[in-house]
Specification:
Layout: H1 2-23, H2 26-49, H3 54-77, H4 86-97, H5 111-126, H6 128-131, E1 132-133, E2 137-138, H7 141-164, E3 170-172, E4 176-180, H8 181-201, H9 208-236, H10 251-271
Length: 275
């Protein structure tokens, strides 16, 4: 019971922080996303590289932050989009610096630096496309809607999995033995319902069928995001990516679904001309 109370309280506090960062001010949004990026990259690199090559890990985290800040500046202040090319130069510097590592047997560890940037920094950087709208400026309601869909999917999968999935067929037992097909379909139903409610309430400004399709696509992507992180933890032999959130584990544990779901949501809305 004590663990349940801790999980609930820490979840409420973090939820309030996230909502405040999305709805109050663009600078709070930037601070929130940078904090999440730094924390998740740190957790991923510690999980995959241990304590080795601290300077290179810090450099990779700095590159991820620079990419986010440049995109933020493009969307918030009209910075020339071509300056985003500087991120490629920073990445080349990181790759070139790895040549000076004395122990060449450890060279393969540096692949984790690039994986972390693509896996974590890129999706969080893309979030700028969600919160900045042409002619509107900063508006975090759509990003909040994304998170509501992801949370509804997670809650639905957990509830239906607990009720109907204990003795049913498992979704991906080699990676996550507890996840069931019952939870998968239940999560999809909850996500679709959340998308419909968001459209009915006007929190998202596009037609109902687009909201439902978006929710279903984000649910599917989120499941793969969850499984992807579970695979990393299994390979690295760790239970949680970190312990920043009491009772919940690490930041990466809480947002593994979002790292796949947000890019899929952005791509769908871009291809359909909704953003």
């Amino acid at each position: 019971m004590n663990n349940t109370v801790v999980r609930t309280l820490s979840g409420i506090v973090f939820l309030a922080i996230v909502i405040g960062g999305l709805l109050i001010d663009k600078f709070l949004f930037a601070a929130l996303l940078l904090f999440m990026m730094v924390t998740m990259l740190y957790e991923f690199y510690r999980m995959t590289m241990g304590e080795k090559y601290r300077a290179f890990r810090i450099l990779a985290i700095a590159i991820g932050c620079c990419a986010f800040l440049m995109m933020f500046s493009v969307m918030a202040f009209g910075l020339d989009m071509r300056l985003l090319g500087l991120n490629a130069l920073l990445l080349i510097i990181l790759m070139s610096a790895s040549l000076f590592v004395k122990d060449k047997a450890d060279f393969k560890l540096f692949s984790f630096l690039y994986t972390g940037l693509f896996y974590i920094a890129v999706p969080l950087t893309l979030s700028n496309f969600v919160v900045f709208r042409p002619g509107v400026g900063f508006d975090g309601k759509l990003m909040l809607s994304f998170l509501i869909i992801i949370w509804a999917s997670d809650v639905g999968a957990y509830c239906t999995g607990m009720l109907f999935g204990k003795h049913g067929k498992k979704l991906f037992p080699s990676v996550s033995p507890k996840k069931s097909w019952a939870g998968y379909w239940g999560g999809m139903g909850f996500a679709a319902l959340a998308g419909a409610v968001l459209a009915w309430t006007g929190l998202v400004k596009f037609p109902l069928y687009h909201a439902v399709i978006l929710a279903i696509l984000m649910h599917v992507a989120g499941v793969f995001g969850d499984l992807f992180e579970s695979q990393w933890k299994r390979v690295c032999d760790v239970k949680d990516s970190g312990n920043i959130m009491p009772g919940h584990g690490g930041m990466l544990d809480r947002f593994d679904s979002a790292l796949f779901a947000i890019p899929v949501g952005v791509i769908y809305l871009v291809l359909t001309g909704l953003i």
